[in-house]
């Protein structure tokens, strides 16, 4: 580190640097101690001196810190700013980080707005349901609309039955079968067709997997799945599925010679 009797042109004291960048002197001293941003020079009186290059590096540090990176992470990401290409590379990385942060913030904003809508539609305060909705919003599970329809016993069953990984897998299979049924309906494939019955069989197996064979849960699932008024895309799709699935299931059960819903309806 070079030493100067006076402050030469092109150099700043720690106080000037701090004022220009809106940070405290203590912050710059801490970054120096941690090896993040050491002054480029020092006066004979021991005053730390910074250059415009140091100012650019400090901007890089502050930008990364605002994006949630720890100081250790930032230390690993700092690139020597020796060439235009190096500077451009730093700016490219920061731009990508900012874009990712914007996406995360937009996702959070969407989740908050959706949660607010759901909370206002619910008839009572239930922090358990709020928590379930938040988890499913984070999982980007459109089927979270079902949660507000389930009673606490059914929700407790779901909480004990699924973790995040198995829940996502179940939802994926449920959505795939639902989409397949919607497509069959659009293609005017009759419920008694072999193609439809294969999907209905898989759909019923998914239901029994969900209930673990507890047929007493069927009335609650039937009630939760009823769509009287469509208010969103998920409900619109589910209404189509229900209208097509009901006669298809009746055909499927008649071929089995047993109706699992007998004795549990009502």
From TrEMBL:
InterPro entries: DNA-bd_dom_put_sf, MerR-type_HTH_dom, MerR_fam. The keyword tRNA-binding does not apply. PROSITE patterns: HTH_MERR_2. The keyword Acetylation does not apply. Keywords: Coiled coil, DNA-binding. It comes from the Bacteria. Residues 11-80 form the HTH merR-type domain. GO terms for molecular function: DNA binding; DNA-binding transcription factor activity. Residues 88-118 form a coiled coil. This is MerR family transcriptional regulator.
């Amino acid at each position: 580190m070079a030493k100067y009797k006076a402050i030469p042109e092109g150099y700043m004291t720690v106080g000037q640097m701090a004022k220009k960048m809106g940070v405290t002197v203590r912050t710059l001293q801490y970054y120096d101690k941690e090896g993040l941003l050491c002054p480029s020079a020092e006066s004979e009186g021991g005053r730390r001196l910074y250059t415009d290059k140091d100012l650019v590096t400090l901007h890089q540090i502050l930008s990364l810190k605002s994006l949630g990176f720890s100081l250790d992470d930032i230390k690993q990401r700092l690139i020597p700013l020796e060439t235009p290409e190096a500077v451009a590379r730093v700016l490219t990385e920061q731009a990508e980080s900012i874009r990712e942060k914007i996406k995360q913030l937009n996702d959070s904003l969407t989740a908050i707005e959706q949660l607010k809508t759901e909370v206002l539609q619910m008839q009572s305060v239930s922090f358990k349901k709020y928590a379930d909705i938040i988890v499913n919003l984070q999982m980007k599970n459109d089927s979270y609309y079902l949660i507000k329809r389930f009673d606490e016993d059914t929700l407790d069953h779901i909480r004990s039955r699924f973790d995040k990984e198995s829940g996502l897998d179940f939802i994926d299979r449920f959505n795939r079968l639902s989409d397949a049924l919607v497509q069959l309906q659009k293609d005017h494939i009759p419920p008694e067709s072999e193609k439809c019955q294969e999907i209905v069989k898989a759909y019923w197996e998914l239901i029994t997997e969900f209930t673990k064979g507890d047929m007493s849960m069927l009335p609650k699932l039937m009630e939760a799945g009823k769509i009287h008024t469509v208010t969103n895309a998920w409900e619109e799709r589910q209404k189509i599925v229900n209208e097509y699935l009901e006669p298809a299931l009746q055909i499927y059960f008649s071929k089995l010679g047993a109706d699992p819903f007998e004795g549990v309806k009502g």
